Structure formats: C-alpha cells, structure tokens
Amino acid sequence: MLHIHFTAEDFTRVRFAPRPSPVPELHAALMMLGTPHEELLFGRWRGRLLRALPGAAEPLADLAPGGTAPYFLDVLGETREEGLALIRAARPEFVRSELERVYAGRGAVPPWIRDLHATGGGEAWRVLERAQRAAYEAVLAPVWGQVQDLHRAEFTRYALTLAERGLGAALTALAPGLRDGVWEWPGAPREVRLAGRGLVLLPTFHWRGGPLVQDLPDRPVVLAYPAGGGLPLAPSGPGEDALAGVLGRTRAELLRVLTEPRTTTELARRLGVSNATASAHAAALRAAGLVTTTRTGRSVHHAPTPLGTLLKP
To answer: What transmembrane ranges does the database entry give (predicted)?
Structure first.
C-alpha cells in the first residue's frame, strides 16, 4: 500500500496539473509497452507501436536495463520541449548516481550511457533527445488530441468535486483511503512524506498499473495515476476505415470517441451533427449490441459494450 503523509501545509498545496505533460505521458506509454498483461485489449496496440517505433528511439531502452528508469527523467513540463529541457538541466552528480543505481550489478554498459555518466557529454544528451523525440512522434503525437480531451474531462471532474464537496472529497474520489493526514493508494508498499512540498495530481491515459510517484528533493511530489476509460489510445488507421465500411463513417467515429460514457449532446458536438442524429446513430449501435445507454435524471449517457470496445481499431 502506498501511504502519502500530509502536513497541514500540504493540504493547501495540492494542485491538479492543468494540462497533460508530454514527457511523463510518453514514459507511461513506454512502460505499458513492456507490460505483458492485458493482451486481449492491449496486444494489438502494443504490436502496432512496436512496429512503428523507429531505430532512433532504441536508446531509451538503455536507460531502463532492468525495467527501472533513472529518476532524472521524472520531470513535468507542459510541452515536450520544456520537459526535455528539464531533463537536461539535471545536476551532473544526480545523473551519475542514478545511472549507477539502474546499472548496478548489470553487464555491459552502452557507450553513450558511459559517456553520459563520465562527462555529461553533449553528444550523449543529443542521443537521448533524438530518442525522446522519435518515440514521441511514433507513440504520442498521433493520439495527443485524445490525451488533451481526456485530461480536460478529468480536470473538470476534479474541479467540480472540489468546488461542490471540498478537497477531501476530491482526493477520496480518486482513492478512498484518506485518514488522519495519510492518503492510501493500492500499490507497492511505500511511504511518501510531503513535508510541506505539496502534491501535484497528474492523470495518465496510457499506464494501467498502480500510481507512479515522482518524489525528488526540493520539488513537489507528483502522483501520476491511471485515468480515462482503461483502454489503449489509438490513432485512425486501416482498421477504422474497414469498420467504417461496415457501420458507416459516422457510427464508426461515434464508437471511437466513446472512450468514456458521453451524453448525446457531447457526442453530437464531437461528431459535428445534431442531437437527433447522434441519438439515432447511438440507437442503431445499441440495437447491434455495441453501445449501452443509461438515463440518470434528465441526462442520457452512452458507453461501449465489451463487444463495441473490441471492435475499435
């Protein structure tokens, strides 16, 4: 169990990241690529991305020889460029100690890693930056618009809960175990003491494991937690075109945008059609067993069925 210890001051320093952060999201996606479980939903996504990753991205694997990456990669940054600049700004002694940690007891060290350790050389940083950029273009760029949409929805939910019910309710909506200044999350045993540094909440839409914690000296602790619909994000591709040939382009697009339950009005806005048209398409998909519709008060929400999820490209 992860235990996050708050002081009174820390409760005034909790904030929700206002926008998604490209570098942590990229690292979450790369970690998910190496995770062997959930093959039914993630197998095709994993295979597609592994085929798409260019050779220039291969050095990133050198940074996590045992599946554990150095902590100097733990940065935020609201743009990719800002994130890369923060990585490169890491103190040389911190970079060296982290490389020694992840390579302790391991065999041969790649030459560029040795260069980064010995000199913090400019060429080694350029290798890393090229790898980060190449991985971003292959993994995140095609779905970044979806990540932004999902983040806005998550931010809105958190903000509404905070405004209506207070900070405690907003935190326990993410994980219910908040007692006596200690917030518990299911996961590997770990004690994190904020000690006045505050906490940044960062949803991630690729990672499906336990919460990821960035806990570095003199920085706010960052808690990256799995959010979204629990499904892999995928760009449009041949599979979607084939599905459109069967369902029709609008119904195929409707199924694709149901990454989470959405109202008829939300669907209409995302599809660029009228509410009546969106409702008719949802009804057709519901009749085919691909969508469920539930009514709560005056709101109607649509969500994909397991079969509808599996049909997504």
So the answer is: none
Which residues, other chains included, contact 48 with Cβ-Cβ below 8 Å and sequence gap of 6+? 234, 237
The reply to whether 231 falls in a domain is no
pLDDT tens, position by position, 280-291:
999 999 988 889
Q: Considering the chain, what is the average pLDDT of its residues?
A: 88
pLDDT at residue 230 greater than cutoff 80: no
| Residues 160-175 pLDDT 10s | 999 999 999 999 999 9
Question: Cα separation of 187 and 288, whole Å?
Answer: 39
Top-ranked range on mean pLDDT: pick from 31-45, 88-102, 145-159, 190-204: 190-204
Rounded CA-CA distance 310/161 in Å is 32
Burial of 120-130, coded b for 16+ CB within 10 Å and e otherwise, reads: beeebbebbee
Do 71 and 120 fall into the same domain? yes
Question: What residues are paired with 14 via a beta bridge?
Answer: 199
CATH code for position 257: 1.10.10.10
* Alpha-carbon separation of residue 228 from 30, 31, 64, 171, 259 (angstroms): 17, 17, 26, 17, 7
Helices (H), the chain: 22-33, 39-52, 59-62, 80-88, 92-103, 111-118, 122-139, 144-165, 167-174, 238-247, 249-257, 264-271, 275-287, 306-311
Q: Tell me the residue range of the domain where 251 lies.
A: 238-311
Is beta strand 2-5 parallel, antiparallel or unpaired with respect to 190-193? Answer: parallel
> Does residue 96 lie within any of the structural domains?
yes
Is residue 233 included in any domain, yes or no?
Answer: no
Nearest-5° Cα angle at 229, 210 to 162: 75
